[in-house]
Write a structure and sequence with these properties.
Elements: E1 4-14, E2 19-23, H1 29-34, E3 37-42, E4 45-56, E5 61-65, H2 71-75, E6 81-85, H3 86-91, H4 100-103, E7 107-110, E8 113-123, E9 128-134, E10 139-143, E11 149-153, E12 158-161
Parallel strand pairs: 7-12
Antiparallel strand pairs: 1-2, 1-6, 2-5, 3-4, 3-6, 4-5, 7-8, 8-9, 9-10, 11-12
Length: 169
């Protein structure tokens, strides 16, 4: 059974020709542009939709799907999430990119000592942050940049950081 990863959400229809207004994560235009197909989760079922065309606005994408030609065709999917198979995402990750579910739960180590656990990943529009729950149960945001995150080891499930003073409180 395939595992799916969300890549967007159908916010509404756009125009009268069945185009979808789709919300997506920032800086994902190149990835979305290379997709030929996505799956829409509709009635608890992943239904494939072939992408005919895609245009980008500064806040959302306008996607035209094959076989969806009217407002009535697309409006039934309003609010539905769009997915791709996890393998499609993995094939397009750069060397220093990871899936959020891979990072969540990893031990955070500094100088060989466990200092916390990754409980989430967020983005402020400019960069990514690891939410790290420390031994004192506080949550600290750690910028996911090479100067601070020294190594990510998926096999050992560890994230090595340079614990500069004041980073983890």
């Amino acid at each position: 059974m395939s595992k799916y990863v969300s890549v967007g959400k159908i916010l509404n229809f756009h125009g009268v020709r069945g185009e979808a207004k789709v919300g997506y994560s920032k800086n994902q235009q190149d990835f979305l542009n290379m997709l030929e197909m996505v799956y829409v989760l509709f009635n608890n079922e992943y239904k494939p939709l072939n992408i005919k065309s895609i245009k980008f606005n500064n806040k959302f994408a306008i996607i035209k799907f094959d076989g969806i030609d009217t407002v009535n065709d697309i409006v039934v999917y309003k609010g539905c999430l769009l997915f791709v198979e996890e393998q499609t995402i993995r094939e397009n990750l750069d060397e220093d990119e990871f899936l959020i579910d891979e990072l969540t739960g990893m031990d955070v180590v500094a100088n060989g000592e466990k200092v916390g656990v990754v409980v989430g990943v967020s983005n402020n529009g400019q960069s990514d942050f690891l939410s790290v729950k420390t031994k004192t149960k506080n949550i600290s945001l750690v910028p996911f940049v090479k100067a601070i995150v020294l190594n990510v080891n998926i096999k050992e499930k560890t994230v090595e950081i340079d614990n500069i003073p004041g980073l983890l409180e």
